[in-house]
């Protein structure tokens, strides 16, 4: 198959943690090569099928899903879907004839990278986590380059293919202005207290949401204003709890569209430990308490969080202990200026803000 110059396929998705980096890479490619043609391949029924077209790119969906826990029998339908998706991906790659296929993780990424390697098309893997997924480990030997954000991944990937780039983040994260009047007005908050930002990812985080709802008056009594991203499924519950207790210093939203404003006023962030969330917080330099998602593949969020905790760059509360431990921790932490400053300085040292340019360099080489 003869590739057509300046054509690229980007594959991945499933969560915002895969989709936003993929779009950031596509935008970086278009800035560098305006004539580039970029095709996305995602998973039918997932966020990317909506978010990617909104960003101005064409996307094709595959009927693919993740491995289920349990017996091999439970995964027979999954494997059938994967094989059929590889076949469909091969047809797409043959027709589009890309120079390079970039995989950013997610259900579709494995099938597309597998199809590309079978057709001898150059592939680049963008591994976001400190503990790589099984699919990327299996496909690494066929990749031309593997862009990573954490040290020590040589035990999983061929050392000569690893390029330390960091994780791509949204452009507005790189130019955040702190404590602007516009940001406070956006959340309808006064400037009289520090701000704690609770964010559980694009879908929200049930353990974090329930902990706040169960102790709503305790959180309201913190010497802080609170911005609480709940996700769609918990939004009405959160709104009702705030209204019933007539609380004014907690603002809940189902989704924060202006993360630059949220980060801009935040003095402390409570977050899941997804790789992209961590990369954004490193760049902004915000003190953080991570609550790793325990069901994440191979417990990689715990590994992500510990990489920062071990360097005094963040703190961590286990998912099962959020309800019992988070409120008391925040009572101490929000008034401990020395600890907040230490975490801010240390997390900032881990930032790799030029990730998009380095990944685009790798793709274009």
How many domains in all?
2
Q: What can be said about the biggest beta sheet?
A: 7 strands, parallel
Coarse structural class: alpha/beta
Name of the CATH architecture of the largest domain: 3-Layer(aba) Sandwich
**CATH topology-level name of the largest domain:** Rossmann fold
Which blocks of ≥5 consecutive residues have pLDDT under 50? none
Supply the CATH class of the largest domain. Alpha Beta
User: What do the pLDDT scores average to?
Assistant: 93
The order of strands across the largest sheet is 3-2-1-4-5-6-7
- Cα-atom Rg, whole angstroms? 21 Å
* Basic shape: globular
Distance between the termini: 20 Å
- By CATH, the superfamily of the largest domain comes out as Glycogen Phosphorylase B
Number of helices: 15
Helical fraction = 40-55%
H/E series: EHEHEHEHEHEEHEHHEHEHEHEHEHHH
In what range is the share of β-strand residues? 15-25%
Please describe what this structure looks like.
It is a single chain. This protein has 365 residues and is an alpha/beta fold. The protein is 43% helix and 16% strand. It is built from 15 helices and 13 strands. The strands form 2 sheets. A 7-stranded parallel sheet has the order 3-2-1-4-5-6-7, with helices on both faces. It has a 6-stranded parallel sheet with strand order 10-9-8-11-12-13. The radius of gyration is 21 Å and the shape is globular. The protein starts with 6 loop residues before the first strand and ends with a helix.
């Amino acid at each position: 198959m003869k590739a057509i110059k300046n054509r690229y396929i980007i594959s991945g998705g499933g969560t915002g943690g895969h989709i936003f980096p993929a779009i950031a890479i596509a935008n970086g490619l278009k800035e560098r090569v305006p004539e580039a043609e970029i095709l996305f391949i995602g998973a039918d029924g997932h966020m990317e099928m909506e978010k990617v077209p909104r960003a101005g790119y064409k996307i094709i969906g595959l009927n693919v899903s993740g491995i289920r826990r349990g017996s091999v029998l439970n995964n027979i339908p999954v494997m059938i879907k994967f094989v059929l998706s590889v076949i469909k991906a091969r047809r797409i790659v043959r027709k589009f004839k890309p120079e390079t296929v970039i995989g950013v993780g997610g259900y579709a990424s494995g099938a597309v990278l597998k199809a590309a390697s079978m057709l001898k098309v150059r592939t680049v893997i963008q591994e976001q986590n400190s503990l790589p997924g099984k699919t990327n480990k299996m496909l690494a030997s066929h990749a031309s380059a593997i862009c990573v954000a954490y040290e020590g991944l040589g035990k999983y990937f061929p050392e000569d293919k690893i390029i330390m780039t960091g994780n791509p983040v949204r452009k507005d994260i790189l130019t955040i202005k702190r404590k602007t009047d516009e940001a406070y007005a956006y959340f309808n908050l006064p400037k009289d207290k520090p701000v704690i930002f609770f964010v559980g990812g694009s879908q929200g985080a049930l353990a974090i949401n329930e902990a706040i709802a169960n102790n709503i008056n305790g959180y309201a009594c913190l010497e802080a204003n609170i911005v609480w991203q709940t996700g769609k499924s918990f939004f009405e519950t959160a709104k009702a709890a705030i209204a019933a207790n007539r609380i004014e210093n907690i603002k809940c939203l189902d989704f924060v569209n202006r993360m630059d404003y949220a980060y801009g006023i935040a003095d402390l962030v409570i977050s899941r430990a997804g790789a992209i969330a961590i990369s954004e917080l490193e760049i902004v330099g915000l003190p953080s308490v991570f609550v790793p998602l325990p069901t994440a593949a191979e417990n990689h969020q715990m590994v992500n969080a510990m990489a920062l905790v071990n360097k005094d760059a963040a703190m961590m509360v286990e998912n099962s202990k959020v309800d019992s431990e988070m409120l008391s921790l925040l009572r101490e932490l929000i008034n401990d200026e020395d600890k907040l400053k230490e975490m801010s300085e240390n997390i900032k040292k881990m930032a790799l803000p030029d990730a998009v340019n380095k990944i685009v360099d790798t793709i274009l080489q």
